[in-house]
Amino acid sequence: MLGRGVCLHRQGDFTHAIRVLERALALCRDCNHILQLPGITGFLGYVGALSRCSVESVQKMHEAIQGYEAIGLTSQHSLAIVRLAEGSLLAHRLEDAFAFATRAVALAHSQAQ
């Protein structure tokens, strides 16, 4: 379902993408599928930020980053922080956006070593 949500996002159908991602998130929570939760939560927040720029969307992206950190899944961690930076920028939180972007670059460099 995450893949379908990503495709809908890329087609610009944010409303439908959000519905699909919300359903995917509910299924992951019901099945206690912790490895998928951060990715779905973060992408749902990202699409929400692109479509309506709400505080809830930015909060979902924060939850995703905390989820990646909690399970030690670093492969998507810097991308989630980049999306959080973009969401913060869209919410006119320029200082936060800069801080998150800087953090994402530093994390990407540290993972490349």
CATH topology: Serine Threonine Protein Phosphatase 5, Tetratricopeptide repeat
- The tally of beta strands, per DSSP, is 0
For the record, what CATH class applies? Mainly Alpha
Strand content: under 5%
CATH homologous superfamily grouping: Tetratricopeptide repeat domain
Which stretches are low in confidence, meaning pLDDT under 50 for 5 or more residues running? Answer: none
Rg computed from alpha carbons, rounded to a whole number of angstroms: 14 Å
Give the overall average pLDDT. 89
Describe the main β-sheet briefly: none
Report the span from N to C terminus. Answer: 33 Å
Query: What sort of overall outline do the alpha carbons produce when their principal axes are compared?
Result: globular
Estimate percent helicity: over 70%
Order of helices and strands: HHHHHH
What is the annotated CATH architecture?
A: Alpha Horseshoe
What is the count of helical runs? 6
Label the structural class: mainly alpha
Structure, explained:
- Helices cover 82% and strands 0% of the residues.
- The protein is mainly α and 113 residues long.
- The protein has a single domain (2-112), classed as Serine Threonine Protein Phosphatase 5, Tetratricopeptide repeat (Alpha Horseshoe), CATH 1.25.40.10.
- Helix 1 runs parallel beside helix 3 and helix 2 runs antiparallel to helix 3.
- The radius of gyration is 14 Å and the shape is globular.
- 35% of the residues are buried.
- The model has no long low-confidence stretch (mean pLDDT 89).
